[in-house]
Amino acid sequence: MNRLLLGAVLLGKLALRVTAQEMLTPPGQVKFESTDYKNILRWAAPTNSSCLQYHVQYKIYGELDWLNVSNCQGIHRHDCNLSGATSDVREWYYARVRASCAATSSKSAWAMSRRFSPRWDTKISPPTVKLNLSKQDVVVQVKASRVLMRKVHNGVHNHIYVVHPGGKEEVYEVASGSRLTLTELKPRIRYCFQAQTVIPRDMKSSDRSTAECITTD
């Protein structure tokens, strides 16, 4: 009888331990945010507990095995840079994250992202525009973001929009880092310039940059 009672107590403790390990709520809002092919996984903390650590894995769509993201194991922050793991823009990926608490040996279930494509899901940031005015001549220099140019070495173009008084626009296309020189502009006229980065290969483009305006001499 005593042995049966002891066995029941041990089973009860084991059940409590298993229950405690399953008590953690999974992280929420697991999603990729990608700009210029810099791919960041973000999530929301399930509770306000200070003991929580997070563990991130990813896999290629169609593969069975999940792989650990080495620099995102046992972390306290709520984001993980997966740019290296998801560098092949031809592939589709999943990522997942779970929470753990060493103090209670508890773990949550995995929370998974939606399927992610670097090529189709990344957003392209607007380029920078620099103007140099000399009397009635304007030199326009446009540069795409450095992060983008490190990823896409070729095939990046920029559209330059010249906005005349009254709203009329002219559009020029130049390679990233190139300059556009406009000569013999009308004197004492305000011109505004915007630029847009375009990647024809991936059928992607940025929003237009903030307008930069000058008044000719």
Write up what this structure looks like.
It comes from Poecilia reticulata (Guppy). One of its GO terms (cellular component) is plasma membrane. Belongs to the type II cytokine receptor family. Residues 5-107 form the Fibronectin type-III domain. With 217 residues, this protein is mainly beta. It has 2 domains: 28-121, Immunoglobulin-like (Sandwich); 128-216, Sandwich (Immunoglobulin-like), CATH 2.60.40.10. The chain is 14% helix and 45% strand. It is built from 3 helices and 16 strands. The strands form 4 sheets. Strands 3, 4, 6, 7 and 8 form a 5-stranded antiparallel sheet that branches. Strand 6 (93-101) and strand 7 form a beta hairpin. It is elongated and about 75 Å long. The termini are far apart. The relative contact order is 0.15. Residues 4-21 have low confidence and may be disordered.
Topology:
Blueprint: H1 2-21, E1 28-35, E2 38-44, E3 52-60, E4 67-75, E5 79-81, E6 93-101, E7 106-107, E8 111-112, H2 118-121, E9 128-134, E10 137-143, H3 146-151, E11 157-163, E12 169-175, E13 179-182, E14 190-199, E15 204-205, E16 212-215
Antiparallel strand pairs: 1-2, 2-5, 3-4, 3-6, 6-7, 6-8, 9-10, 10-13, 11-12, 11-14, 14-15, 14-16
Pfam family, one: Tissue_fac
GO molecular function, one term: cytokine receptor activity
Domain Fibronectin type-III: 5-107
